[in-house]
Amino acid sequence: MGNPVRVRFAPSPTGYLHVGGLRTALFNYLFARHQGGKFVLRIEDTDQSRKVEGAVENLVETLHWAGIHFDEGPGTDGAFGPYVQSERLAVYQERARQLVEEGNAYFCFCTPQRLDEVRRRQLAMKLSPSYDRHCRNLSAEEAAKRREAGEPSVIRMKMPNDGEMTFDDVIRSKVTIAYKVLDDQVILKSDGFPTYHLAVVVDDHLMQISHVIRGEEWLPSTPKHLVLYKYFGWQPPVYAHLPLLLNPDKTKLSKRQGDVAVDEYRSKGYLKEALVNFVAFLGWNPGDERELFSLDQLIGEFSLERVGKSGAVFNIEKLNWMNAQHLRMKDDREVLVLLKEYLEQHPLNGNKEFADDYLLGVVSAMRERVVFVKDFVEKSPYFFKPPADFDPAVVKKRWKHETPQLLRDYMKALSSVENPFKKEDYELTLRRTVETVKKAPGELIHPLRLAVSGVGSGPGLYDILALLGREETIRRINVALEKLS
RNA sequence: GCCCCCAUCGUCUAGAGGCCUAGGACACGAGCUUUUCAAGCUUGGAACACCGGUUCGAAUCCGGUUGGGGGCACCA
Predict the structure, then answer these.
(1) What's the CA gap between A142 and A140, in Å, rounded?
(2) Domain residues of chain A, as ranges?
């Protein structure tokens, strides 16, 4: 066995957790747990201009909601903190200075305007934009003099002039890039903050990260990181670059084309189980035909070897299906808890309280027919309040001349039954009622459903009646009679 | 423009040279079941981007083409 497995999820706190971020976090988490390693959360807030108030808290909260818990991170200190990069400035500055002293980096005094001009010129000449290394050969003395004079500067790393680098990636095997297409990257900005490239290398090393599992957008800059490892004389981690999550038009997943924030899915009523399961299958699969997994099962099965290379479109239809599946896997009691939560947050008119037993009845009647918890209310509102109106199409189809009489007969029969409190009693009574007048059951069943629910579809009629109870059933029939006759 | 990555049904994917007249899932169509709607079951249509090689044999290996994506900041 080699070094202990330590992985990290390192988002920048720009507001909310993106589903792509969730996927990256999840893969890191699954890998860590499967391997018996540690999962670290590190906040990459080295761009002051992109700071968003409360973003870290929100990020952590969302991760926890999804069931992804970190072993070390902000507020959960391990031996390698702090885990927020803006609190580690001195570390980066010292390392940057070391690089300068050893001749692997240099001070650069070029102004943003000059850089801009250079870039424009290069573009005009159809060259790829990169720093022209104007300050690379400044003497140490001159650099010191200009810095003392108060001239703003950054530190750039020196890229080798020629040759190429080949590195291994668990997902893509070997990747080769020529040094000459790589820039003398800024590693320390003029405000004293590091750029991503320096911070990520220093922190991953100091935090003893064994595997870097991150999005494919980092693949082209990995050689820069590797060069830094070489300059520092450190052993680089194992890299695994995950395929991107895509919009339906195959571009990199972004808002404008649907929801992208985990919070949005959460508030739309997606179960964390479904979202996690779904996102895990974007780029990974267990190799057989199972696809419904709990988080624990994912941990048990996950491996980087089974991660694919090509981007995956975020397909909401399948997510919906998975949500329904996960909802069905829960027993009635668990669903009851979710339903009560929903009811609390979305009070019906009159704020009526419903007994657990009643709600449990609704759950078992509707569970095969819902995708979201909210559907219990939205797809069968008649369980929560009497129908305000009646579906005209159904009225037209089912409400016949003889209907009112049939309904009256049924009410009468119901009233005379001793104890019509069981589902079977509603059915028996109905069959007897139609038999006496020589009608088909359907001639009463359909209008009766319409009368009590206002619509033409739903759970078994007798389930509805039994839940509503005799009194309410009769009340609703009378209202329907009044409104529809 | 330059560099890197990728390429199987509309979508997510299985497939690591013969088991592939390419399997599963979502979505879609049909049927069965049923008091309705779902669910369930059965079933249908639907893909190896293209061209060359290698090989007795290629979705699988190699090369090229095309297509798509990503990256080229004092952003991550």
Answers:
(1) 6
(2) 88-242, 330-380, 386-485
